[in-house]
Amino acid sequence: MTRIHSFTPVADERARILILGSMPGSASLAARQYYAHKQNAFWRIMAELVAFDYGLPYADKIAALRSAHIALWDVLHSCKRIGSLDTMIEAETQLANDFVSFFHRHRAITHIYFNGSKAETCFKQLVMPNIECDTFHYQRLPSTSPANATIPFMKKLEAWRAILKPLHGESIPYSIHGDLLKKEYRLR
Question: pTM of the entire structure?
């Protein structure tokens, strides 16, 4: 089994929120694009929330995220995995990205959103013990992966509206509650 590597972050100095996945799936690695699997709901959700045309070319979607002050990256720099499922990542092969340097360069980030539980778990285990930074707000959101088929698209979209709060400073109503979809905690 060969080691796979994630992409460089999509971020600039204006980014205020960071969306973290675990590791790109096979379709994304082959296309060299975040969330390239056609059934992954990520870009449909972002198109709704950030108000861009879902059919835009990838570079324009990335530009729309940057324009909305959203950064995008993965927790893992590299790992060994068979297929695309997070459950197939070999735990002992996980290496985290360099978040110390990343947060030093991107000081405006105040909110971190995890695209699913694997990203959250890896961040807590591999990154949190090594970072010295200001307080962040963390929230796990339902995975946009097609493997997470138990949650319909509209419920995922509703949960993902949480990313609008720090961007617009407004209160976002939720009809979905519980640890699965909304989990906030602070790092001090």
Answer: 0.86
